[in-house]
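dude i think i finally got it to work??
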Amino acid sequence: MPRRLKSPLVLAIDIGSTSIRARLYDAAAWQVGGAGATVAHAVPFTPDGGSEDDPAKLCADVETVIDRVMAHPAAGAAEIGGVGLSTYVGNMLGIDRAGAAVTPLYSYADSRSAQDVEQLRPRLGTPDHYTRTGAPLHTAYQAPRIAWLKRTRPDSFDDAYLWTDLGAYLYGRWFGTVDIPSSYSVASWSGMLDRFRLTWDVPTLEAVGVDPDRLPKLADYTTAMRGLARPYAKRWPRLAQVPLFLAVADGAAANIGVGCVGADSCALTAGTTGAMRAVVPGTPDIAPNGLWAYRLDADYSVVGGAVTDAGSLFQWLMTNLRLPRSRALEEALAASPAAAHGVSVMPFLRGERSPGWATDATAAFLGVRATTTGVDLVRASLEAVAYRFVLIWRLLRQVAPAREIVVGGRAARSSPAWMQIMADALQMPLVGSVEQGTTTRGIAVMALKALGVIERYDSLPVPRLERYLPNADNGAAHHSALAAHEALYDILVAPTNSRM
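look at this
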């Protein structure tokens, strides 16, 4: 017998780095069966390290998934109480006074500001800056990107009336105004928010020469926009007067989605990119060196670290080695002994973020012989990504000494062999979340809390699925391999490392 939906429903929209999803959830954060839509839309890359997206195409794809969900019978059969939105963060674009985009959308993966990182280092590569913003100096953040734009594209920089984020841009389009705030969540992921004062960080703005009036106002995500502009009120009449809450970071929403709130729980997500995060109350005085500390909202912070290449490395190998994702491959990976292939991998197709923050890091494979197989290369690469998570975990457990790690993200969840590799390397129990759409569920929970339907982010416990228990013998093998991995990193990456 189908579950009886609890009113009100909420619409959750997630703009990720490979696709855009929208789903309806009820007041218990259960997905409404069939009321979901996905459109593929990958963050683009260029050989020179650029990552620019077309705002018009992106908006069209977002609006398409909303159209599809709102056409579902459930969208008209029950009250929709609110809309939540998350985006991949570290994005930025310039808009004019009418709210139209005058630049491409620049993503977190655009590394062309590496020169500007070095030029800003005397002013922003300091412990004080790290403490205030919770973010190291790196190309993934907006201060170097603004400096790069002023240096290489001064006309584009001058043309922009306001430098804003994707979520605020979308809302400006839907509500017909440029006066859309950025949430504390999204702003902190820019690396330019004073996370204690919840204001733009003045020393950072001064260092890159941008006036705060050219940045959005700031507010908590619970701030709601109401009253869609006429074209969108006509297009989505059921949403015309519904509160749309400010966009939040997709990583923050993912933690809420898998039920990881508090220092005793940690979330690991491995989709296209990867991250380990803990949601903790208040504002930690300082993040362990190598991690970041962002805001979830006015009351909670998110502490953790990220890797740029997780599932993307897996997919790159599948494409270039011409290996099909199959049961046979999964069985071969699972049957391979831990760290027995003799191959060491630097898993950096698009540079490194946590914990080393090496802007110019590239991928490398060492120890490849005539006898090395495609399975060996895949297994070695998956182990290498796991080792990057181990390095993050060593720091994160100082803040969040969790008893288990909850895993979300399609890339990891689709490979039991990889899940076991990570459990063995981390020497921690790994638990799969019952939810497939962890980020959209997290958006729904955050919207329900903002609506007052639930009191706390953990008011709706998430059932768990499979558990992966660490194997001590495999852990010892990975421990030795990790030492070799770190030694290779020191040779190949550390000399050009831009770490704090």
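The chain is about 35% helix and 20% strand.
im so relieved honestly
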